[in-house]
Automatic annotation (TrEMBL):
<keyword id="KW-0482">Metalloprotease</keyword>
<keyword id="KW-0645">Protease</keyword>
<dbReference type="GO" id="GO:0006508">
    <property type="term" value="P:proteolysis"/>
</dbReference>
<comment type="similarity">
    <text>Belongs to the peptidase M14 family.</text>
</comment>
<feature type="domain" description="Peptidase M14">
    <location>
        <begin position="18"/>
        <end position="247"/>
    </location>
</feature>
<keyword id="KW-0378">Hydrolase</keyword>
<dbReference type="Pfam" id="PF00246">
    <property type="entry name" value="Peptidase_M14"/>
</dbReference>
<protein>
    <submittedName>
        <fullName>Peptidase M14</fullName>
    </submittedName>
</protein>
<dbReference type="GO" id="GO:0005615">
    <property type="term" value="C:extracellular space"/>
</dbReference>
<dbReference type="GO" id="GO:0004181">
    <property type="term" value="F:metallocarboxypeptidase activity"/>
</dbReference>
<keyword id="KW-0862">Zinc</keyword>
<dbReference type="InterPro" id="IPR000834">
    <property type="entry name" value="Peptidase_M14"/>
</dbReference>
<dbReference type="GO" id="GO:0008270">
    <property type="term" value="F:zinc ion binding"/>
</dbReference>
Length: 381
């Protein structure tokens, strides 16, 4: 499918009721009720705090694909793209119907509803579900495992969101989308089913280069059997980690949402139309590994406490009411050559001070600063 066609589908079927970063069961419940009879919606379990966990099954093909989102409650971009995908599946588009003809999808939109409501990575017991694949100590982990064993997928899509710090390689290119074909042993052997996942990632990357050139990365594949992706890969099910990252001026992740949607369409169509054997896996190896080269803001050529330095700021995401806000925190005061800011400010050798002429310190929060007595806001616009 042409990139322009996918983009047109996205804007036509983008779910208008979901936006920005805060997405919970309260946001998706009414949307699940609206789905037509081609979708089988069911409650597949409950969270620690007895919130329902929903599963959605659709399609009638032989190739089975399991997808789950918001395993980390504060990573919602892929959930928004899932509902854009649901709307597209309801459209009757003939090429999209190819997916439903050849594949059966099982999708868990929010695996960690307690974490989603509290806007935290962990669940209500403060456990990272993506480190609970072996113990399965949490009800949410048991739900996912039960679906895995019952549905018996041929492919798994593990859907996440990543921080703004990541770069595609050690460069000034943002890692707007990242992938991983997880390892399945300590030696990180490139096994046959890892090759299958790698081939699919290579196809997605090829398409994304038309939209976000040089802004796709892959993660280090160090093996950790406690991670869900590594566990499923070790059980010989090709598994792909999706990570939704930062786009310029997109702290709500509503631009990145398009790129995740594009990745869904491209990968699902590729699986639907092809017998994926992993023979074309080498394109994956050309994708740069993620670096950590970005801060949200860098103030260059500043004078801090009488000394010349750069100032790095990272936003701390805070839930206020039902909105996610971004609090600027001083992360580093140092020579930051080799690092990049999503926003850069040149202090031109002048003193940089906080409110009430306070000196800047690592770990302190500042909504604005003063350069030559000129007030500059550090808040997300």
């Amino acid at each position: 499918m042409k990139t322009s066609t996918i983009t047109s589908l996205f804007f036509e079927y983008k779910e208008s009721q979901l936006s920005h970063r805060y997405v919970t069961n309260n946001h998706i419940r009414s949307l699940l009720k609206k789905l037509n009879t081609n979708f089988k919606v069911e409650v597949i379990g409950q969270s620690v705090l007895k919130e329902d966990i929903y599963g959605v099954k659709l399609g009638h093909g032989k190739k089975r694909i399991l997808m789950w989102s918001q395993m980390h409650g504060n990573e919602s971009t892929t959930t928004k793209a899932i509902f854009d995908l649901f709307n597209t599946f309801s459209s009757g588009n003939s090429e999209i119907n190819t997916i439903l003809k050849n594949c059966t999808l099982y999708i868990i939109p929010i695996l960690n509803p307690d974490g989603a409501k509290a806007y935290t990575r962990v669940n209500a017991n403060k456990v990272d579900l993506n480190r609970d694949a072996q113990l399965r100590s949490q009800p949410e982990s048991k739900v996912l495992r039960s679906v895995f064993e019952t549905f018996k997928p041929h492919f798994c899509f593990n859907l996440h969101g990543q921080r703004t710090i990541f770069s595609a390689g050690n460069t000034n290119n943002i890692a707007t989308v990242s992938f991983l074909s997880p390892a399945q042993d300590q030696q990180c052997t490139i096994t046959s089913n890892r090759k299958i996942a790698m081939e699919i990632i290579g196809v997605m990357n090829h398409k994304l280069q038309e939209l976000i050139p040089k802004q796709v990365g892959v993660y280090d594949d160090a093996f950790n059997l406690n991670c869900v992706g590594d566990t499923f890969q070790s059980e010989n099910v090709p598994t792909i980690l999706f990570e939704a990252g930062h786009s310029p001026n997109d702290y709500g992740r509503d631009i990145t949402r398009l790129y995740i949607y594009t990745s869904f369409i491209v990968s699902l169509l590729y699986i639907a139309k092809n017998t994926v054997k992993g023979e074309q896996y080498e394109a994956y190896l050309e994708i740069p590994e993620n670096g950590k080269c970005f801060y949200d803001i860098i103030i260059r050529n500043a004078k801090v406490n009488g000394y010349p330095n750069d100032i790095a700021i990272l936003y701390k995401e805070i839930l206020v009411g039902n909105e996610v806000t971004f609090l600027p925190i001083i992360e580093e005061i140092d020579d930051l050559m080799g690092f990049y800011g999503h926003i850069e400010i040149n202090a031109q050798g002048n003193d940089v001070l906080g409110a009430d002429s306070k000196m800047l310190k690592i770990g302190s929060a500042h909504e604005f600063i003063f350069i030559k007595k000129i007030k500059k806001s550090l808040l997300v616009k």
